[in-house]
Amino acid sequence: MDIQTTQTTPANPATPATSQDIQHGVQVLLGRNRSFAATDARQQATPLPFVPRELAYVITCIDPRVDPGQILGVGIGDAIVARSVGGRVNDAVINDMAWISYLKETIAPDEPFFEVAVIHHTDCGSALMADDRLRTGFAERNHLDATARDALLDVAVTDPHTTVRHDVERLLASPDISPRIRVSGHVYDVTTGLVTTIAPATNRQQD
Ligand SMILES: [Zn+2]
């Protein structure tokens, strides 16, 4: 059966999605995977240790409108991609980069280092964390104390130009990240489709 041709939209848009509908959506993607597997795209990816072909490590939002494969043309093997709410540089993002950085220095010391691009975007859903009612409700539901609740406010990308500069500085200041890694900051405009560089690439250990 060709899964891609299967109807995916509920007959009545007013009908709430069921778990079966959700599984159905994943089945569409799995059908696309079979099409992908039939190509030779995988042979274009670099083997371990995976120094990405474009020497790029992209951090961006989980928002489906901000897919690096679409807005940056990131193909298989081109870049390491990390996604978080708002594209924020949090502890998990830093820990992952520290691990990759260690692998790079240990297994592929002679290969060039990748550059990190932090990309925040306009109309970011993370800004909803600045809504007192939503933030308080989320904190209550997840039994967060007042400190953790207030920390959610720091995640909100209400001004991507400001938050992306903040996150670039946070990465550059992290002792867990190799000083050889250059970091840049950018803002993606979901209306125009353009990415604008806000913080040019720099690193702690100046060339
Ligand atoms: Zn977002």
Automatic annotation (TrEMBL):
Chain segments carrying region Disordered: 1-20
Give the enzyme's main class according to its UniProt record, as a single word.
lyase
Kindly state which reaction or reactions the protein catalyses.
hydrogencarbonate + H(+) = CO2 + H2O
Q: Name the coenzymes or cofactors required.
A: Zn(2+)
Q: What is its EC number?
A: 4.2.1.1
Recite the UniProt keywords alphabetically.
Metal-binding, Zinc
Q: Which InterPro entries match?
A: Carbonic_anhydrase, Carbonic_anhydrase_sf
The function of this protein is: Catalyzes the reversible hydration of carbon dioxide to form bicarbonate.
**Family that this chain belongs to:** Belongs to the beta-class carbonic anhydrase family.
Q: What is this protein called?
A: carbonic anhydrase
Instruction: Please tell me the species this chain comes from.
Output: Jatrophihabitans lederbergiae
